[in-house]
From TrEMBL, chain A:
Residues 40-60 form the Biotin synthase auxiliary protein C-terminal domain. Keywords: Iron, Metal-binding. InterPro entries: BsaP_C (IPR058605). This is Unannotated protein. The keyword Metal-binding applies.
Length: 66, 341
């Protein structure tokens, strides 16, 4: 699925490079669905995280790292 | 913000006085003395950290207490703590979510697997309602059944009955941060007072639970207020002080407050240790951004004797393995569960 939106700030990926967001994402889980920009329900655990978009389902740390 | 620094000659005198008072006699520095430490010139930071490390080794020993934390109820908080992404009053992207019991036990197992002796369950609330207390009852019992680890809690402002309930559940330590100096608190929170937090802490202490109380440095407070905060924590005499370094969160009123310098952060570590020679002084959130790998090492050699490993509540920490390798490298043994009781 094409990523259209920054998963940290929720703004369009086409309108800026989002370098600061990429750096910040090393220490933050995603907050926005990159496909539809919906805010995701995110649970952080001591050794991982999962994020769920009501439209596009679950992203977790393992899948995100792949 | 312009800050006064002590001349180098005075710095040696300040540290020598601290050595005699804190290292030799175990008496923590007062707020005025902490201010002198916080105003030391950059050239004296290494000496301050070395003294703080000596104090930690003499009064606490070489062991490091390792802890993991998890949020049982994230987001949607009615309070307005200006640093926090979990307030429902701000435009933060953090959405409300509850952790179920199975996930809670999984989190406790993940924490125990690192060798940690502490697992703290945290909720973003003003104070717990019956639904949360019920969830805690079930969750703490399930953890104790499945995992050999001490359970702590952080659920906001408590009633006396709730304090007693937590004791009955077997919660051995309660976290409730004062967050900052009393004089700066109204700039940070307007929906409750510093005194309300203090009242909960007194009830926790009277119950026999261990008191865990710290805060966040670098939220725009003056260096005088940072010293005031250390003095107020020193007066409280908490068993543990978690020391967070401000990490600006999107959508919060403090999102534009800059991150403090690593030098300032390290001096804060040394100063807080010199104010509280016997407390468990824990590295908490924001250290990855403020201090990085080198600063984390310097902090562990500058008064810190406890760490939160793994992720935080809404942000991520560095992998637990990296902290554990660092502790091994520094020859700092991890405190075992039995020793922590």
């Amino acid at each position: 699925m094409e990523a259209l939106w920054c998963d940290r700030c929720g703004e369009s990926l086409r309108e800026a490079d989002h370098f600061d967001c990429q750096v910040a994402r090393n220490l933050e889980p995603p907050r926005f669905c990159s496909s539809c920009r919906r805010r995701m329900v995110v649970q952080v655990l001591p050794a991982g995280w999962s994020a769920r978009c009501s439209e596009h389902g679950v992203v977790d740390q393992l899948n995100n790292d792949e | 913000m312009t800050q006064t620094t002590q001349p180098q000659a005075d710095a040696a005198v300040i540290l020598q006085q601290a050595r005699e008072q804190v290292l030799d006699r175990g008496i923590g520095l007062s707020a005025d003395q902490v201010l002198q430490v916080l105003q030391l010139p950059d050239e004296s930071v290494a000496d301050a950290l070395a003294l703080a490390h000596e104090v930690r080794m003499k009064w606490c020993g070489p062991e490091v207490e390792v802890e993991g934390i998890v949020s049982i109820k994230t987001g949607g908080c009615p309070e307005d703590c200006h640093f926090c992404s979990q307030s429902g009053l701000f435009t933060s992207p953090v959405r409300s979510v509850w952790l179920n019991i199975e996930e809670l036990v999984t989190a406790a197992k993940q924490t125990a697997a690192t060798g940690a002796s502490e697992f703290c369950i945290v909720a973003a609330v003003r104070g717990p309602d019956e639904n949360l207390m019920s969830q805690m009852r079930e969750g703490v019992a399930a953890i104790k059944e499945a995992v050999d680890i001490n359970v702590a809690a952080s659920l906001g402002i408590l009633t006396k009955e709730q304090v007693d309930d937590l004791v009955d559940m077997g919660v051995h330590r309660y976290n409730h941060n004062l967050e900052t100096a009393q004089s700066y608190f109204p700039n940070v929170v307007t929906t409750h007072t510093w005194d309300e937090r203090w009242e909960t802490l007194e009830m926790v202490r009277d119950s026999g639970m261990e008191v865990c109380c710290g805060g966040i440095v670098g939220m725009g407070e003056s260096v005088e207020q940072r010293a005031e905060f250390a003095g107020q924590l020193g007066a409280l005499k908490p068993h543990e002080v978690p020391l967070n370094f401000f990490n600006p969160r999107p959508g919060t009123p403090f999102e534009e407050v800059p991150v403090m310098s690593s030098t300032e952060a390290l001096l804060s570590i040394a100063a807080f240790r010199l104010a509280m020679p016997t407390t468990v002084l824990r590295f908490a959130g924001g250290r990855e951004i403020t201090l990085g790998e080198i600063g984390t090492r310097d902090g562990l050699l500058g008064g810190i004797n406890a760490v939160i490993v793994g992720n935080y509540l809404t942000t991520l920490g560095r992998p637990a393995d990296e902290d554990l390798e660092l502790l091994a490298d520094l020859k700092m043994p991890i405190k075992a569960v039995a020793d922590a009781l």
